[in-house]
Amino acid sequence: MDLDKNISLNEDIHSNKFLFNTQLSVNETNKSLDSSIQLTNFFPQKQIALLDLDYFFAQCETIRNPLIKDLPVVIIVQTIRGSGAVATCNYLARDLKIRSGMVLSLAKKLANNETIFINADKQYYTQISLKVFEIIDFFCDSVEQTSIDEAYLDLTNPLGFEKAQKICLNIKNKLKNDLGLSCSIGLSFNKLLAKMACEEKKPDGFTIIPYSKKDDFLLKKNVKKIHGVGPNLELLLKNIGVYKIGDLRKIHLEKLIELFGESKGSMLYNYSRGIDDRVIIVNREKQQISRMITLKKDSIVFDEIKNSLDFLCEIVFNESKKLQKQFKTCSLIVIESDFETITRSKTFDGKIDFEKFKEIIYFLLRDYISDSTKLIRRVGVRISNFDEDYGFQKKLLDF
Ligand SMILES: [Mg+2]
Question: Which of 183, 200, 211, 310 is buried most deeply by CB count within 10 Å?
Fold first, then answer.
């Protein structure tokens, strides 16, 4: 899959670090990345998104067999007792009241004669998930993968909420265009509200809750919408007259701790106010590192573009050293003045040092220039095809 094809070009789609650096002129290239990281700390409010693929396994099956697209689709797994259970199902099956976790015999009773039952194909879903995360990684550096089809993204950057919003839309469009997958995204300022926003509209939803709107969003919601409030806790809360998050907020912290213990009590107190300090724990092994920059003026002259490439090569190479990644593939990404994206790559066996890396990138640019007449608007450098084993990721995808 060529990640760069048809990218929607709202610019500056990369990491937070990159977003800052794009504001620097090429003459300022000696500024270190660390200074940009410190600067981002002046922006106390975070932008956190939760991305969840809609009925993922069922969507994967629909990609493989588009004929089942408009039928109720139920994916089943075998339980240890030998009977089947519903792993997931699409919205048409949900309309029939079939639910994840339901025993197969009950799901079959609820099904109509159009309902398709399919055994879960773990290997196939894992392959698709890898492609999904390739796209997510391309747009965001801070990703906490929470399951085969769900991840938190830290999109905090100096350019604010609007930028984060654009990145979310870019990811959403790319997943749809390249893989045919729909997802729901919640964007807010912490994990709690990102998750609640994501739940708000499914499938194919995109819900944004800025800080200023948090109370409008929270107060009228049922307490069970709070992350961590299961049926038991919901019942206990009902017993003290708490139905809505607004009711919960009226109860003193001391009272909540007395009733539910220190940890749950403070959690309820904080969450009812939209307070959640949990950070994104980046747990994904990177599959590629890339950076892009907008040229000061559109150009097709090698010497006018070389400085920008040197800058990008240095950032990308240093990042690979920091992460101890040995790469085999080097790519040049060119965004032309009419926003068309071209990627040229070269793959080598053996170690690529900095000089060789730059040479390869120069070669790719010269090669591009030799048969193109269009002006270049943005350039990017990417390394991929890392020489290592993705142990942690394999574990996450185990289900
Ligand atoms: Mg999902």
Answer: 183
- The verdict on whether 150 is a catalytic residue reads yes
* Amino acid 292: pLDDT: 86
Domain boundaries for CATH 3.30.70.270 within the chain: 43-205
Average pLDDT over residues 356-379: 94
Give the CA-trace dihedral at 383, 174, 200, 252, to 10 degrees.
20
Share of the chain above pLDDT 90, in %: 68
Q: Which of 150, 200, 234, 304 is catalytic?
A: 150
CA distance 311 to 295: 12
Mark the residues whose beta carbon lies below 5 A from ion ligand 1: 52-53, 56, 149
* Two structure tokens written together for 110: 């609820």
Judged against a pLDDT cut of 90, whether residue 338 lies above it is answered with no
Q: For residue 7, how far is the Cα from the chain centroid?
A: 16
pTM: 0.71
The residues of the chain that CATH labels 1.10.150.20 are 220-272
pLDDT range class, residue 40, cuts 50, 70, 90: very low
Residue 353 alpha carbon to ligand 1 centre in Å: 41
Domain 43-205 has CATH 3.30.70.270: yes
Degrees, nearest 5: CA angle 93-95-101: 55
